[in-house]
Every structure is written in C-alpha cells, then in structure tokens.
Write a structure and sequence with these properties.
InterPro entries: CoA-transferase_III (IPR050509), CoA-Trfase_fam_III (IPR003673), CoA-Trfase_III_dom3_sf (IPR044855), CoA-Trfase_III_dom_1_sf (IPR023606). GO terms for molecular function: catalytic activity. This is CoA transferase. Pfam families: CoA_transf_3. This protein is of the alpha/beta class. The chain folds into 2 domains: 196 residues, 3-Layer(aba) Sandwich (Rossmann fold), CATH 3.40.50.10540; 82 residues, formyl-coa transferase, domain 3, CATH 3.30.1540.10. Strand 3 and strand 4 form a beta hairpin. Helix 1 crosses helix 7, helix 6 packs parallel to helix 8 and helix 7 packs across helix 8.
C-alpha cells in the first residue's frame, strides 16, 4: 500500500519506532537515522542475541544509518537523503531539529512537498513543553492512570506502555493523512503529535459521562458493575472475560451453561444475588474447559491469556498474528495484508 514511499526516521526508543514500524509493514521504505552509538533501545535491558529486545521488536525491516548529526559531513548526508524522501518523523525535544537545520520550516524551503511529523511528550505553549517525560507521565496527566486502582484507591502501575504505543499509532495516522493531502494538493504539511494530548483525547467519553453522572470511571455498565459484562474466575484460578452486553449474547451464554432462568437477569448489577450464582458456575470448570466453551458458543466470552499463551492460542494461530525469524517471534501489525482472507 505504501510501496514507493520513503520515510526518514529520527526517532528512538518506543513511540516513534512503533509508528514507523506500522508504516514499514504497509510497504514504506524506512531509513532510520541513528547516532554513532545507535538508538539507545539497542542497549536497553532485557537483551537478546546482543541487542535490546525492544529495539528488535520495533525496528525490523528498516535500514539504519549511523550518523553524527553534529558533524557537517554526516549532516549533509542526511540532507541528501531528505531530498529523496516523502516523510520525516522525529521525536527530539523542541528546538533540537531547528538547531540542526532539520526543522520543518527550513526543510520545506527546498523540499516543499515533505510530510513532517514531530512526536513529542507535551504540546507547545505549556511549561511542560521542554520537560523530560515518559509513558507513565502521559498516563497520569491525562486521567487515564486513575482509571485502574486497587482496593485502597491507589493507581495501579501499568505493565504496558499504552501512551507510547497509542502515540505511535496516532503519529502513523497523521503521516498517512499528510500523504493523502499531498496527493490532493501537491503540498507538504507539518504535524505535531503530543502523547499527553493523545491520551487525554482517549478520555473524551469519561469527561462527558462525568459531567452528566459525576461518575469518574466512565460508562458504568462497562466498568465491571453488571453480571453480563464482567471478569470471572475459573476453578483453577484463571479468568474469563464475559462481554455479553447484548441480550442475545447473554441468552446464548445462559443456555450454554444450562441456566435459562438467568436470561431475565440481563444487565443486573453485581450486587444482585445472581452474580454469585454466575461466579459459582465459572468456578465449576477449568480455564481450559471455558476456552472450549468460548470457541463453540457465540456469547462474547474470551480467555484472559498470559503473554506466553497468546502466540499458541487458536485465534492467533488462525490469524497468523506472529511471524518467526531466526527463532524470534514478532507480532504482525497487519496480518490481514500478509495473509489475505477471501471475502465472503
């Protein structure tokens, strides 16, 4: 889809590399500009086969150039690459690219059709703009982190870098929009993607819900408050996710577990006695047994898989979600492009 599109990638660590990985998997040629010592993610623990696994996961299919942007000769090499490029994406702090004469205003004077994306922590016009920051900060300042709390009301530290990854997705989205616009009017464009702002945008529903209901955890029925949209423990201490919001799916579940009397309890709160009855039924079977039910009954039921179980699951095996290269397994962002299915 993006064959023939050339991207110059100045980003490091996770958000930017994830953005350009998505574009590379759509067919773009990504030229990754690294400093003399490489992207710091190359040396970030955990290491595997002499290289940081975070780097390995997010930079496959890219062509790296190791250049010192403070060296005139290397800087000129970069500018030559830019002349043949369609897109630039960078994630330096504000002002760095301008000092290197690699900012959008300078480049568009000799390359007016360039699509330029700056992936930053905080947007402009705030005292945070030049501050250092990471995923946890964007999660915190957006209100997202406060959505997961323990029994004592303390926010739960996430084990996934949600803001970094979503920021990368939005950056790739903006690059694609810039390319579409260029195809229409033959003009380049500049895009600044703030990861803090991106996370805040994801909280839009929560803000409106709070204004109307004063509830801080978003849509109440989606927050584990009803029997048909909840997590349930199995007999062996594992968990299943039941998302039977629509009555037809709840009915399918109730009939599958031979409790037709529960059908009338659709949308009942977990404070209702039926909740304990459903919990008891889930604890009658093992995790493996419930996976069998989830694959046979159309009732919005899925297993809560551990990371090592995901590649082996029937769903991901059927989708071809993982590629294996030299004993490494990597997730395909676009398995549908590599494994096209016939449309019915």
């Amino acid at each position: 889809m993006l064959t023939g599109v050339k991207i110059i990638d100045f980003t490091n660590y996770l958000p930017g590399p994830f953005a350009t990985l998505r574009l590379a998997e759509l067919g773009a040629e990504v030229i990754k500009i690294e400093g003399p010592n490489g992207d710091p993610a190359r040396h970030l623990e955990p290491m595997g086969k002499g290289q940081g696994v975070i780097f390995t996961s997010n930079n496959r299919g890219k062509n790296s150039h190791f250049l010192n942007l403070k060296d005139t000769t290397d800087l000129n090499k970069v500018k030559e690459l830019i002349l043949e490029a369609d897109v630039i994406i960078e994630s330096f702090r504000p002002g760095v690219m301008k000092r290197l004469t690699l900012d959008y205003e300078t480049i568009q004077t000799y390359h007016p059709t360039i699509v330029y994306c700056s992936l930053v922590g905080y947007g402009e016009n705030t005292f945070y703009s030049t501050f250092g920051s990471h995923d946890l900060n964007y999660m915190a300042i957006s209100g997202m982190l406060a959505q997961w709390k323990d029994d004592k009301g303390r926010p739960i530290h996430p084990s996934q870098q949600i803001a970094d990854l979503v920021g990368g997705i939005v950056a790739s989205e903006r690059v694609l929009a810039g390319l579409v616009q260029r195809g229409i009017n033959a003009k380049g464009s500049y895009h600044q993607v703030s990861m803090a702002d991106t996370m805040t945008a994801l909280m839009g529903n929560h803000h409106l819900v709070h204004q109307v209901t004063e509830m801080k955890q978003g849509v109440e029925v989606l927050a584990g408050t009803i029997v048909n949209y909840c997590l349930y423990e199995t007999s062996d201490g594992r968990y299943m996710a039941l998302g039977a919001l629509e009555k037809k799916f709840w009915q399918s579940f109730c009939l599958a577990v031979e409790h037709p009397e529960w059908i009338a309890c659709h949308m009942m709160k977990v404070s209702d006695p039926v909740y304990k009855q459903v919990c008891a039924v889930f604890k009658e079977r093992s995790f493996t047994d419930w996976i069998g039910v989830s694959e046979q009954v159309d009732c919005c039921l899925t297993p809560v898989l551990e990371i090592d179980e995901v590649p082996k699951s029937n769903y991901h095996q059927q989708r071809g979600s993982f590629v294996y290269d030299d004993n490494w397994s990597c997730i395909q962002q676009y398995s549908d492009l590599r494994n096209p299915q016939k449309k019915k």
